[in-house]
Amino acid sequence: MTAVASAGPGDDIVVAEPRLRSWIRHAVTTTWLLPSAVLLIGLFIIPTIYAIYLGFTNLELLGQYAQNYSFTGTANLQRMVHDPTFWLSVKLTLIFVIGSGIVAQTVLGLALALLGQRVNVVVRASVGAIVILAWVLPEIAVAFVWYSFSQAGGTLSHLFGTPKSDLLSTAPMLVVCLANAWRGTAFSMLLLSAGLRNVPGEVDEAAQLEGAGYWRRLFTVTLPIMRPTLMINLLLITLATISDFTLIYAMTQGGPGNQTAILPVYMYIEAFQFNQLGYGTTIALTLVIIGAILSIAYIRQLRPELKDTVS
Amino acid sequence: MTSPPRSLKGEEVPAGQLTASEPGISAPAVIRKRFSLSRPVLNVGMIIIGVIFLLPLLWLILASLNPGADDTLSLPHPFSLQNYHLVIHAGAGAAITNSLYLAGVSTIIATAVSTMAGFMLARRKIRFKGVILVLVLFLTGLPVTLLLIPTYQIFVNLGWLNSKFYTSLVLASMSVPFSIWLLKNFIGQVPTEFEEAAAIEGASEISILFRIVIPLIIPGILVSAILTFINSWGSFLIPLVLDANPADTPGAVGIYQFMSANGQVQFGQLAAYSVLFSVPVIILYLISSRWLSGGFSFAGGVKG
């Protein structure tokens, strides 16, 4: 009854056993998967489905609709479409994702990765450590540091040559973007350094023998080879930035006057300050849809490379 | 320490937290010769970026040691630990203990559960395995903001609000999808030869698991545990919404409340609070990056 199974990686490794033992094996497998399944179904799948329902209800945190809420069809959607703050929030979210995430973090991270190839080892290690330290710091600590930095008389205000103005009220979006770029650059730096290391030196040398200068080689050889890494970097940064809450909320609470209320912050304000849990869920769902569209766009861009690597 | 940051599978891992260690790169010498900007200029450029990145950190540390700190970068005279004393007695101590509870409990739950699932997904034939894995990967991308309101509503109905334990349970579940992937890949890397050899020698399945597999994947378990701990430690929105009990306030929420408390912002004390709150995470990061860049190769155990 015992036949040796040909074991590929990930396949069953031992042997095909008598029926009773294989039944036990099956039971063991299920038991070991069960706790994760319970957690993920209970705290991910069910809440997600529940969110899709709640997004179409008039549920409130307090008051008459806290208990007796009902399905209201597209009322929340109509409200959202006609809500100027929502559209402001969408705009701010895009500024935040593109400005601080895609542009600042990627450009700075790439610059640091490229510089890292050529500078002194001590310089590279110490600057790298500082940049990584900014990234490892808890988000709330980052929020506090940048909050203090941008106060009237704060160091950032001095650097900007306007020591008397509170930058969080005069240029709030700029400050939160800077804070997020400061915090997130290390991620791009690490990912892109790894990507640069995988660029084969021969290709670059060949281009060099043909007489191509540094910048030309960078843009026509190195970066195209690194495209998959760059796209993965952009995808992950986008997903992380688009759902960021702590940094902005702790610094500004979305203010002054909703000027930094990106979608997650606006969701929180509507749901837990104005008690509109149903409407808040609609905003959260919209956020997920925006994130999904952007992810699909990135992944479509990646597809040719993925095919190349597989074949 | 210039070993390249690599993932457990030797490829770039989506969550870059894994690609630890310094951005060390050794370029071919030829490139340097032709490069138009000279090396000193590049060094200076990198140092300038480094100084800009350093300024906020420097302010934080100096302000925490300065009882009269304000929002301007200045040297404290004299250096003093007074801020630390004050802030620990003003609630930072209790809040950090709460953070320890939340992060500790969620780490234990998430790591145990994900190790079990990761092992089975890596080693056994499971129906719909591909679908399960894709679904779990999809869950890693789902933002907390979507889950927050339904979870809150479920907690209201179950009477689970304002409980440290149930809050940790949510924090644990947030880390489970990523941990499953991490551990599944990690366990998949361990050659099956060890297990086969043990099976041929007649070892039972349970003893293979505990005596062969678990010791081999301890680095992976530790990395997963540390990443979960760091995430739960810093988490702000979930405890803010799910646990309003003042006695349960973790450090992240405590710093926020201290910041937005009425009256003059206590820059020095808040800086000390932030440093206290950051140190454990920094230490854990250093430990995990050691593990990650150490290159735990299994090749040594298998010949041919």
Q: What would you note in describing this structure?
A:
The complex is a heterodimer of chains A (311) and B (304). With 311 residues, chain A is mainly α. Chain A has two domains: 19-54; 82-310, MetI-like (MetI-like fold), CATH 1.10.3720. Helices cover 74% and strands 0% of the residues of chain A. Chain A has helices at 19-54, 75-81, 84-118, 121-136, 139-149, 155-159, 167-170, 172-197, 201-209, 214-225, 227-242, 246-252, 263-273, 277-310. The longest helix of chain A is centred in the N-terminal third of the chain and has 36 residues, at 19-54. Residues 1-13 of chain A have low confidence and may be disordered. Residues 1-35 and 294-304 of chain B have low confidence and may be disordered. The longest helix of chain B has 42 residues, at 82-123. With 304 residues, chain B is an all-alpha fold. Chain B has a single domain, classed as MetI-like (MetI-like fold), CATH 1.10.3720. Chain B contains eleven helices and no strands. At the A-B interface, helix 1, helix 3, helix 4, helix 5 and helix 8 of A face helix 1, helix 2, helix 3, helix 5 and helix 6 of B.
Task: Provide the descriptors you would attach to this structure in a database record.
heterodimer, A: 311 residues, mainly alpha, MetI-like fold, 2 domains, 14 helices, 0% strand, disordered N terminus, B: 304 residues, 11 helices, 68% helix, disordered C terminus
Count every beta strand of chain B, where a strand is a DSSP E run of 2 or more residues: 0
Count of the domains of chain A? 2
Q: Under the CATH scheme, which architecture of the largest domain in chain A would be assigned?
A: Orthogonal Bundle
Secondary-structure arrangement, i.e. CATH architecture of chain B: Orthogonal Bundle
Radius of gyration of chain B: 24 Å
Helix/strand order of chain B: HHHHHHHHHHH
Fold-level CATH name of chain B: MetI-like fold
Based on Cα principal axes, name the global outline of chain A: globular
Main sheet of chain B, how many strands, which sense, barrel?
A: none
Number of domains of chain B: 1
CATH topology-level name of the largest domain in chain A: MetI-like fold
- Compute the separation of the termini of chain B in Å: 29 Å
| Name of the level-1 CATH class of chain B | Mainly Alpha
Calculate Rg of chain A over CA atoms.
Answer: 25 Å
The count of β-strands of chain A is: 0
- State mean pLDDT of chain A (0 to 100 scale): 87
Largest interface: A-B, 116 and 111 residues
Largest sheet of chain A: none
Q: How much helix, percentage-wise, in residues of chain A?
A: over 70%
Output the number of helix runs of chain A.
Answer: 14
